[in-house]
């Protein structure tokens, strides 16, 4: 049975994203990276709430709490992509992929474009089976 994913507020997702990027951070390091950072006590309260929801945990190092994500990077990517497709592309994966490719095509290498073409071919083959 799959564990239930915790519901996170926008601010909690922002903190989790920071921890996923850094892999670990103190409350101060998280606070410094937040857009419009809250007070120290509010940042610590958010971290405590995330810990209570099971999205992060902490270890003690040099008398300081160091926070680490408990949600895997892959799970976080899937959740973020699902949210992006749902919110900005009305649930259409094709529209999301098309938009991303159109926005970034001049920055994509030939290898990246070939990888996309391969993924599309493989998706077609799976669909035919």
Structure description:
This protein has 129 residues and is mainly alpha-helical. It folds into two domains: 60 residues, Orthogonal Bundle (Arc Repressor Mutant, subunit A), CATH 1.10.10.10; 36 residues. 62% of the residues lie in helices and 11% in strands. It contains six helices and three strands. A three-stranded antiparallel beta sheet has the order 1-3-2. Strand 2 and strand 3 form a beta hairpin. Helix 1 crosses helix 3 and helix 2 crosses helix 3. It is elongated and about 55 Å long. The chain starts with 9 loop residues before the first helix and ends with a helix.
Spell out the CATH superfamily of the largest domain: Winged helix-like DNA-binding domain superfamily/Winged helix DNA-binding domain
Percentage of residues in helical conformation: 55-70%
Oligomer state of the chains in this structure: single chain
Would you give the CATH topology of the largest domain? Arc Repressor Mutant, subunit A
H and E order? HEHHEEHHH
User: How much strand content do the residues show?
Assistant: 5-15%
Mean pLDDT: 90
**Low-confidence residue ranges:** none
Distance between the termini: 27 Å
Tally of helical runs: 6
Strand order of the largest sheet: 1-3-2
Number of strands: 3
The largest sheet, given as strand count, sense and whether it forms a barrel, is: 3 strands, antiparallel
CATH hierarchy class name of the largest domain: Mainly Alpha
Structural class: mainly alpha
Number of domains: 2
**In the CATH hierarchy, what is the architecture of the largest domain at level 2?**
Orthogonal Bundle
Shape: elongated
Rounded Rg: 19 Å
């Amino acid at each position: 049975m799959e564990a239930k994913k915790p519901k996170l507020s926008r601010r909690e997702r922002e903190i989790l994203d920071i921890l996923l990027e850094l892999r670990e951070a103190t409350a101060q390091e998280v606070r410094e990276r937040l857009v419009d950072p809250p007070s120290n006590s509010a940042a610590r309260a958010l971290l405590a709430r995330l810990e209570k929801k099971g999205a992060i945990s902490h270890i003690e190092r040099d008398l300081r709490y160091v926070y680490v994500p408990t949600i895997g990077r892959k799970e976080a990517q899937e959740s973020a992509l699902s949210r992006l497709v749902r919110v900005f592309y009305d649930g259409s994966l094709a529209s999301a992929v098309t938009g991303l490719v159109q926005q970034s095509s001049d920055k994509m290498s030939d290898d990246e474009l070939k990888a996309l073409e391969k993924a599309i071919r493989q998706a077609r083959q799976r669909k035919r089976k």
